[in-house]
């Protein structure tokens, strides 16, 4: 699993960070998403899928590898 985050689409709502703070972070100034792990470990897969479904802007997507 590889995560893609479109920083042009993100609205900084922070749902992803609340869902898995080991994988997602936000810029201090703009609140826009940063990926801490583009390829998360298997133990994060469920949370990452939840974060993708919760993201209100559709900025997050998953590429299966
Ligand atoms: S949940 Fe979506 S809109 Fe909110 S910070 Fe994360 S990527 Fe951006």
Automatic annotation (TrEMBL):
UniProt entry keywords in alphabetical sequence: 3Fe-4S, Electron transport, Iron, Iron-sulfur, Metal-binding, Transport
Keyword Iron among record annotations: yes
Needed co-factor(s): [3Fe-4S] cluster
Example of a GO MF term: electron transfer activity
Pfam family, one: Fer4_19
Domain Divergent 4Fe-4S mono-cluster: 1-64
InterPro entries given in the database record: 3Fe4S_ferredoxin (IPR001080), Divergent_4Fe-4S_mono-cluster (IPR010693), Fe-S_cluster_ET (IPR051269)
UniProt protein name: Ferredoxin
